[in-house]
Amino acid sequence: MSSTARARPLRVAAAQLGPIGRHESRAAVLRRLVALVEAAAAGGAALVVLPELALTSFFPRWVIDDPAEFEGFFEDAVPGPGTQPLFDAARRLGIGVHIGYAERAVIDGAVHHFNSSVLVDRSGEVIGRYRKVHLPGDREPRAGAAFQHLEKRCFETGDGGFRAWPALGGIVGMLICNDRRWPEAWRVLGLQGVELVLVGYNTPLHNPEAPGHDAHVKAQHRLVMQAGAYQNATWAVAVAKGGTEEGQALLADTLIVAPSGEIVAESRTEGDELVLADCDLELTGTYKSTIFDFAAHREPRAYGLIVERRGAGPPLQD
Ligand code: CDV
C-alpha cells in the first residue's frame, strides 16, 4: 500500500462473534455485543461492524415448525426496544454501528421476513438499511443432511437492491454473506462510488450439497473479499459469526481488506474478537482514478447478458 497526501482515516472495528446458542437469551447476546462496542470505542474506532444475524443463532439450519419459536428469532425494529442497550452504548461512546438481524416487516398490511442489516452513524441516526438479495440454500429440507440451510424458506429476497450512502466521511455500502460471492452485487456498489463495503456472514465449513468444496471454504471467502475490494476500488470488512454453533462449524476468518486487495487485519480466534484497522478512504482514489476509472474504461454495451440472462444459456450466435 502507498500513502496519500490528503488522508481520510477511518478506524474500523470488525466485531467477530463466536457461537450463539439456540436458546441463548437476547439479553445475554446484547451483553456480548455491548462489550464489543465498548472495546471498539476504547480502541478509538469510529465504526463497529457486527455480523449477519448477530442477535441470534443461525436459525436457518433448522426446520422450525413452531411459529412462536420461528417468530422469536425476528425483530420488528432495529434500533428498537429489544436492542436499545446496544444503540444507547454506541451513541454514548460516539461510535457508528453496523449489525445484521432477522427483520419482520409489515408492508401494505402484510408480514414479510428479511435477512437484513442496518448502519447507524456516530450520533445514533440510521444511515441506511439493506435486505439480503442472494439467499442461498433450500426452501425444503434436504434429506439426510446433517444441517439444513433453509434461507429460501426463512426469508424473502431483499427488495431494495444494493445501495451505498454518504456516511462516516466516505461512501459506505452493505452486503450480507452470500452476496459477497456475486461480482454483480459489488459492481452495483462500485458504480455508486463506494469506499467501504460492510459484509457480515455465517459461513458453514461443510456444504452437504457439495462436500468436495469444503476444503476451499476459507480460500474462496478470501478470494471473493479481496477481488471485490480490488475490482471496485474499495475497503471491505468481512465479519464472521464463527466457531462451532449448535454442533455446526462456521468459518471465522474476519478480515479487513484494502482497495489494493491486501488483507490488512484478520481475526486470530473463533470467538468474540475485535479486529481493528485504520482505513484511509482516500486510498480508494488511487484505484478509482487509474486502473478502475470506470468512466474511462468500462464498456457497458458489452455487458448485456449480465441483466438479460439469469442462468447460463447457449453461446451467443453471430
Ligand atoms: N449465510 C450465508 O449466506 N451462507 C452462505 C453459505 C451457505 C454458502 C455463504 O455464502 O457463506
SSE layout and pairing:
Elements: E1 9-16, H1 26-42, E2 47-49, H2 67-71, H3 84-93, E3 96-107, E4 110-120, E5 126-131, H4 151-154, E6 164-167, E7 170-176, H5 183-190, E8 196-201, H6 217-231, E9 235-240, E10 243-245, E11 248-250, E12 255-257, E13 263-266, E14 273-280, H7 283-288, H8 294-297, H9 305-308
Parallel strand pairs: 1-2, 2-3, 7-8, 8-9
Antiparallel strand pairs: 1-14, 3-4, 4-5, 6-7, 9-12, 10-11, 12-13
Helix pairs in contact: 1-3, 5-6
Bound molecules: 3-methyl-2-ureido-butyric acid (CDV).
3-methyl-2-ureido-butyric acid (CDV) is lined by residues 52, 136-137, 149, 177-178, 181, 201-204.
The CATH class? Alpha Beta
The CATH superfamily bears the name Carbon-nitrogen hydrolase
Mean pLDDT: 97
For the largest beta-sheet, the strand count, sense and barrel status come to:
6 strands, mixed
Tell me the number of structural domains.
1
Instruction: List the strand order in the largest sheet.
Output: 5-4-3-2-1-14
Our estimate of the beta-strand percent is 25-35%
Task: Count the E strands.
Answer: 14
Alpha-carbon Rg, integer:
19 Å
What would you say about this model in short?
The protein has nine helices and 14 strands.
Q: Which key terms come to mind for this protein?
A:
single chain; 318 residues; alpha/beta; Nitrilase/N-carbamoyl-D-aminoacid amidohydrolase; 6-stranded mixed beta sheet; 9 helices; 14 strands; 23% helix; 26% strand; globular; binds 3-methyl-2-ureido-butyric acid
